[in-house]
Design goal:
With 384 residues, the protein is of the alpha/beta class. The protein contains 14 helices and 13 strands. The protein is globular, with a radius of gyration of 21 Å.
Length: 384
């Protein structure tokens, strides 16, 4: 018998990792939370939503109520304390039917069913690339949260397999829900793109590297590969906020004597990214490990050819619309980069394939599928 969950069903989303300021933390999981909150509730009114927020400003979605914390969660330790001690009381006060932890973790003593999103398991696969505190927190609470959750959302099929292999979550409790691509990511008029190049001081041709400056993004090997294929008319532009362990990257650029061919843009605000992708000749994304790889799809949606790693989720994200390389082999990366820079026909082909591939991903679908999963969990609860 079908159970009518009704409008009394109340879904609470822990949005405390929504970033309140520009910087590397406003990329990645921030975008996932923001887009989810922006699109939930727009297709159906059979669920009530509340987003719990800290200092950030959520999107203006009238379908979602917000509750701002009186307890500051701007540091990791304060957020963990709030999450595991105060949040359960808030859920009871709100009479929550379901809580969603959109970034790895839910309160252990939630008092209601939970859904958790797993973005990647790099902290297990590549532990040396994480700060010890972050690694220990995720190893303990992400595993416990995933095992206790009624459902786990994985952002790719690769991450779903990793979640079973490394966290012990049965496949039947995992659902793959892909990220989307915002409609702003699209081919833009040439005069608009040229105006942006002039504004940013960018050349007519360049290789774009986009991502937080941290070891997992593998920018160091990209710099070494670029040094092998360097062309005077096509510099490397590195865009991304400073994460951690990036000093070696800057030192290597100096050692290779390529500082005059490498432009460091730093963090680029989200509203500029479509213009940046459009301005680039190619994008290189040689990350060692990704749970999904959204920048690949964003570049493809803008018509920018991509060279990327052949590991983790990146072949899944890129589809048949990229040149794939071994991210741990500098020669492989150099060969792929050189091939794409030299071959205009290949770039044109990848542009066409990429536009078609990226068009399959949108945030409305992400939100619809997430809401459908909420209803599934609530229906199961109603039958018990």
């Amino acid at each position: 018998m079908e159970v009518n969950i009704g409008t009394s069903s109340h879904v609470v989303v822990n949005a405390h990792l929504l970033s309140g300021q520009d910087g590397y933390r406003s990329a990645g999981v921030h975008q996932y939370i923001y887009q989810l909150l922006d699109h939930l509730g727009k297709d159906s009114d059979d669920l009530r939503y509340t987003a719990l927020i800290g200092g950030a400003t959520p999107p203006p979605n009238p379908a979602i109520a917000t509750r701002r914390s009186k307890f500051s969660t701007h540091t990791a330790i304060r957020r963990v304390i709030w999450e595991q001690t105060i949040l359960p009381w808030i859920l009871r006060d709100l009479q929550a039917s379901l809580v969603h932890g959109p970034v790895f973790v839910a309160p252990v003593l939630s008092g209601c069913p939970s859904v958790v999103t797993i973005h990647d398991l790099s902290y297990i696969r590549l532990p040396g690339l994480f700060r010890r505190g972050n690694r220990l927190y995720l190893r303990l609470l992400a595993r416990l949260s995933a095992q206790r959750a009624r459902r786990v959302i994985a952002v790719s099929s690769f991450t779903a397999r990793e979640t079973t292999a490394l966290l012990g979550v049965p496949p039947e409790r995992i659902e793959v829900i892909y990220h989307g691509v915002r409609p702003e990511f699209a081919p833009l008029p040439g005069d608009q793109v040229q105006g942006y190049r002039e504004h940013r001081g960018l050349p007519e041709r360049f290789v774009l590297s986009l991502g937080t400056l941290e070891p997992r993004k593998n920018t160091l090997r990209l710099v070494e590969a670029f040094a092998q294929v360097r062309r005077d008319d096509t510099p490397l532009v590195i865009a991304g906020g400073r994460g951690w362990l990036y000093d070696e990257l800057f030192a290597r650029i100096e050692d290779l004597s390529i500082a005059d061919s490498v432009h460091i843009l730093g963090f680029v605000p989200q509203e500029e990214l479509p213009l940046l992708y459009n301005a680039a000749t190619v994008m290189a994304y040689p990350s060692l490990y990704e749970g999904f790889g959204l920048p690949i799809l964003e570049a493809q949606a803008c018509g920018t050819p991509v060279v990327c790693s052949n590991t983790s989720s990146l072949p899944e994200a890129a589809g048949d619309a990229a040149v794939f390389v071994d991210p741990r082999d500098v020669d492989s990366l150099a060969a792929g980069l050189d091939r794409l820079l030299q071959d205009q026909t290949l770039r044109d082909e990848l542009r066409s394939l990429g536009l078609r591939h990226a068009s399959q991903f949108d945030w409305y679908a992400t939100a619809r599928n997430t809401a459908r999963l909420y209803r599934s969990v609530l229906t199961e609860r109603g039958r018990r």
